[in-house]
Amino acid sequence: MSIDVTDVKKLDTTIKEKPAHIETLWHERKEKWNGPRLFILVISLLAIGLSIFHVYTAGFGTLPSWQQRSVHVLWALLLIFLLFPFKKGKKFGFMDVLIVLLTLVTAYYMITGAEMIQSRQGNINNGDVVFGTIFIALVLEATRRTNGILMSLIGVFFLAYIFLGRYFPGALAHPGVRYEKMVDHMFNGTLGVFSAPIYVSSTVLILFVIFGSFLMKSGGGQFFTDFAFGLFGNKTGGPALSAVGSSALVATITGNGAANAAITGSFTIPLMKKLGYSKRFSAAVEAVASQGGQIMPPIMGASVFIMAETIGIPYIQLALFAIIPAFIYFFIAGMVVYYHAKRLEMAGIPKEQLPNLKMVLLKQSYLFLPILLIIGLMIYGYSPMKSGFYAIIATVVLSWIRKATRMSMLDILAALEHGARNALVVIAACATAGIIVGAVSLTGLGITFSRFVIDVAGGSLILLLVLVAGASIIMGMGMPTVSAYVILAVLGAPALIDLGVNVVAAHMFVFYFGVLSGLTPPVAITAYTTAGIAGSNPTKTALYAMKIGLGGFFIPFLFVYNPELLLQGGDTTQIVIAVSSALLSCLFFAGALENYLLGPLGVLKRLMLFASAILLVMPGLVGDLTGLALVIFLILWQKKSSPYVSQNSNQMSG
Question: Is the pLDDT of residue 403 over 50?
């Protein structure tokens, strides 16, 4: 089947997303909201101002801690209430005007009295109680508008738990806390709304979102896609493999599975369908790759910045620990795609119809330099903030190398605006996550919950892992990964650590399942996004995506029992053996999933391949040797008994 090279190049208008002038943005929003031109201009200027504030403070120093975080949240709240109407799909109305005015009054109180508010921590006055209450309510309302009612209700539940602890059963009960003490904890200091999630959001996270916006505007997304198609496009299963590669690269910048699926999927899914892949398969492949971008270093998703702060290790070190599991995730997905193509005899795209890999590297590889700069600066000892600041500047400067990628002033303003707008959902989620963190620290729920789930699991690690995995998937449904991770980092991860799990492995475990919840029905947001593009059944697409990404659900169990996969413990030899065993296991696991190895498998051979994959990842040399012996026997059996394999072997030797 042939495809015109222009189809591959069409991504220039989708992934690269040639920057729109502010004038165009005005017209788009005026048509959407039917609002006055001045109103739309104010929103654009507020968004640009928020980005400039964070870029400036990253390069030249932040405000004092509480002030930096409060300005960050208040600015985001104002933008959210202007951009997201009180009732979804409705026009900006009276309730929106009222909430915006309330936000402005609260901002005036907090900004002008910042030092006094902090000095009254532990002895707050009536003004703090009133405005603290209003501020918490505004955070929950902003979360409802951006993240949905579920996340907002979870915040309300944890607030209620602070006061109603005496009514909870058994070990979860506590005496309850006075209202003034709750407001003091949540508002006047940095233990509630302004705790670790907002600290990370106000310093590192938003800066990397802005950086991602600049990189996409400069043509970085186009480079990643051209590179992936030039590298894999002509291979067996090449279009799908290219979709996996390009989506993984773009998603590590965007940090959002559903957003990346909407960006890259609009090109990769139609291309796969045109080459003969089913709608369901095309959508599922894109969903798995897009969602997995959150676990792919060097940038990963927003949760990892919070994880680094929670664990207390440098972000770049945590990204290093995540490399092997991320590679395994995409290796399994890639092998499933490859075996699927082999089983259906799907050819790749002719090489002459693909981007020339050599020319792509010669003409566009400089667009990857800002990412390398971030890595290099953090290794050298620079903070993530400072590294992000220099990377943004480098992106603009490097874009001027070629006319096709050159960013004008209007392009820069558009990147600043898009960066701020893209960060709003996460900022609201982090603020509500701060409420949850504050409730846990105020009531001692973290320690209590750890003891509770350990008792439920009967002290069994594997049962505890299954319980936490299930809770992580359920918690991740319908909310951003960052929200799910923060909740589970203070509830689930401590329980795992108490049973002897490595600290990094415990936090990575809940993080992975929070990410993978984007593929699991009934709220598989990323899979549903790709299903909409492909025109396939959403539920069937999500279930098929779970099959392709099934390895991702087992990887967390692997690195809990083999922390060498996270470069934790063991010497170099042990790490090499663990990684080699895991990769072989993934190879056979993918074959068992797709019912193919050297040829189609029967039921018995498929079960043997599954058994071999499991044996290879069990700790100890005996499991490795047994697994290898089993698969060698299987290969010999298949060669002897399968005409399909024998025919292929004869063709290869000929």
Answer: yes
